[in-house]
Specification:
The protein is 76% helix and 0% strand. About 17% of the residues have low confidence. The chain has 649 residues and is mainly α. The two termini are 30 Å apart. It has 28 helices and no strands.
């Protein structure tokens, strides 16, 4: 019986009070049913659900973090330089490779690029190989400065800018930067001024030295000499700048000084000869070492000590100039630093982060939405006890007078009660969030071949990690046993007086107990097997994709259709190209897109009462017919609701 027919029957019913009584009975039965549902849901251990949701959210955040940060840095770089397309991807690839080579994150590498471009010129980005070379130079320098890439960048860019290195040819400029790095590193090793102090001094004297045609090597040598004389950092730079300014005065020196120089046979024009080295000019002033008054008159009281230090130590300046020229000191020192276990761990972590970036990129950035879904699910899970307490206090009441006027409102009210219960329930919200997260992953699996490739690689990486851990544990146990046995053998050799053997046995036992060999084996096994695992992941991914393509072209191939595609399980032979299949795929895509972009979802159940068997041919009295109508509607409502409850559970 349709709703309209039911409506007409009810209007003809007499005994409105009896109808109202039936409605109240429906209300009580429905409220009791919903209370039972709520009590059943409340018995679920929310703490377990919260724990699982938190784990999923943390895992998603950990996987997405490297890719999200790199993506943000790359967009900043794009805005700064205007790079697009292949060149932008090339710069990203260089940043990721640099992170794996030197440790750290790819996002930090891009930030280093941005600092270089900001302090030198954004035009360098148009030659990505030159930018990569400069970035590598910064990374090598940072190893000599405790890993501080910002300070390393400032040291190098200060030297470049103070000496006015041309940037018209970025590749050549990157080579000059590398040479300057080695000079400063060698000078720091030979003298007492470290890289930060060299940078401070160059800020004050670099431009003056370039104008006086003093080589970068000789300038660094002079800075080291002044540093030992107590003129450190910027103070030494100011002192050297003032000495160079005095040498460049030539005929504009005070007349009294010129007269004294003439008596000493000092050619004032030669002091300003750019073809001469700094030490050659200073050697001409050796006679001033015996005349402090003339020294002060020439350079001023505030600079006389610095001039005296330089003039008296020209031999040391020449030695340092030769020592810092044409070396590979920075590379050698950095390579030593990078052999520490801490640096190795950084590079290993960078490789893991690079895998996460590949996963993020393979999903076309859709994995970023998983962060939001995961965090929302976590928030709802953490708020579940509060929401549960509030919903338990809500009384689901139905307006009996409105239901008396129109029976169809009974169905609407019951349906509203069901929807309210399901929506208000925190478990439903949590499950919806997790379902959306899973749906997003399924979309990525079906849509992006790169995503599947990364997953296959991840599986091979997990197997590699498992093998390495298993072998490490076995080797470690063997080493412990060997170490304990070795201690006994060492003591026996010691008491026998065989000192040499006792020393050798004791040294081996100590190494075994410390796990030196097992740790090295595990590291070598992991780094050695990484490329093989990645290659196997590529191979398996290619095989899966090939099989998938075959399955889509041949429905009788026996290979399963991709997961998550609506209608895949019911598509018959030759149905892959039908209009129905295309429509189903379009609907599936629309649904997936809605989930990935925060779209809406259905959270209601439609209950339709079409016919009440027993009323149509009921021959009793009018008052009995009203009661019968109420019972029939109640029975139908409870039956449909029970079916919905079973489906939901």
């Amino acid at each position: 019986m349709t709703n309209d027919l039911l409506y007409n029957i009810i209007l003809r019913m007499q005994g409105q009070q009896a109808v109202l009584s039936s409605v109240n009975s429906v209300q009580q039965q429905t409220s009791a049913m919903i209370n039972n549902i709520q009590r059943s849901i409340s018995t679920i251990r929310l703490s377990s659900v919260i724990d699982q949701v938190n784990r999923v959210a943390d895992a998603v955040n950990s996987v997405n973090e490297p890719g999200m940060k790199l993506n943000a840095s790359m967009h900043d770089l794009q805005a700064m330089t205007g790079l697009t397309g292949q060149k932008l991807k090339e710069v990203e690839g260089y940043a990721r490779q640099s992170a794996k080579t030197f440790g750290g994150s790819a996002a930090q590498g891009v930030e280093s690029y941005k600092l270089l471009l900001g302090q030198l010129s954004p035009e360098i980005a148009k030659v990505p190989t030159a930018l990569k070379s400069m970035g590598d130079t910064v990374s090598y320098t940072s190893k000599l400065m405790g890993g501080d890439t910002t300070a390393a960048t400032e040291v190098l860019t200060t030297a470049m800018n103070q000496y006015g290195i041309s940037l018209k040819d970025p590749t050549k400029a990157s080579q000059v930067m590398a040479a300057m790095m080695n000079v400063m590193a060698a000078a720091a090793g030979e003298g007492s001024a470290e890289l930060p102090q060299i940078k401070q001094a160059l800020e004050q004297t670099g431009m003056a030295a370039k104008s006086a045609n003093v080589s970068f090597e000789e300038t660094n040598a002079a800075i080291q000499v002044l540093d030992k004389a107590g003129k450190k950092g910027s103070e030494g730079g100011v002192a050297l700048r003032n000495v160079l300014a005095t040498l460049g005065q030539g005929r504009f020196l005070p007349k009294t000084v010129q007269e004294e120089f003439a008596k000493l046979h000092i050619n004032i024009n030669a002091l300003n000869d750019p073809s001469k080295s700094l030490t050659e000019r200073l050697n001409m002033l050796k006679p001033l070492l015996n005349d402090s008054a003339l020294m002060s008159a020439t350079f001023g009281k505030e600079n006389s000590n610095a001039a005296m230090a330089l003039i008296s130590q020209t031999t040391e300046v020449d030695r340092l100039t030769t020592a810092v020229k044409g070396t590979q000191t920075a590379y050698d020192q950095a390579n030593i630093v990078m052999e520490s276990q801490e640096e190795k761990n950084k590079r290993l972590q960078a490789s893991v982060d690079d895998f996460k970036i590949s996963l993020f990129n393979a999903s076309g950035g859709l994995m970023g939405y998983a962060n939001v879904i995961g965090n929302v699910s976590r928030d709802m899970a953490n708020l579940a006890p509060i929401i549960s307490g509030v919903t338990s206090a809500v009384q689901f009441l139905t307006n009996a007078q409105k239901m008396q006027a129109l029976w169809t409102k009974i169905v609407t009210g019951a349906q509203w009660l069901w929807n309210a219960a399901m929506t208000a329930n925190p478990i439903g919200l949590i499950v919806a969030g997790v379902a959306a997260l899973i749906a997003g992953i399924v979309v990525c699996w079906n849509k992006f071949e790169g995503f599947r490739k990364v997953v296959f690689k991840g599986w091979e990486a997990l197997k590699l990690f498992g093998t390495v851990i298993k072998d490490f544990v076995i080797n470690r146990i063997k080493e412990m046993v060997s170490g304990i046995t070795g201690i006994g053998a060492t003591l026996m050799a010691f008491f026998r007086g065989d000192w040499k053997k006792a020393w050798e046995l004791g040294k081996k036992a100590t190494q075994d107990l410390m796990g030196v060999n097992s740790g090295a084996k595990a590291y070598n096994q992991l780094t050695g097997g990484w490329n093989g695992a990645m290659a196997l992941g590529d191979k398996n991914s290619a095989a899966y994709t090939k099989g998938l393509q075959k399955a889509q072209g041949d429905p009788n191939s026996g290979i399963a259709a991709p997961v998550g595609i609506p209608g895949a399980a019911t598509t018959g032979a030759g149905g892959g190209g039908s209009a129905a299949g295309s429509e189903a795929q379009a609907k599936g895509k629309k649904t997936a897109d809605s989930i990935a972009t925060g779209g809406t979802k259905h959270n209601y159940i439609t209950i339709t009462i079409k016919e009440m068997n027993g009323i149509k041919e009921y021959l009793g009295s009018k008052s009995d017919s009203a009661k019968t109508a109420g019972r029939e509607v109640l029975d139908e409502l409870l039956r449909v609701t029970a079916m919905a409850t079973t489906a939901a559970s």
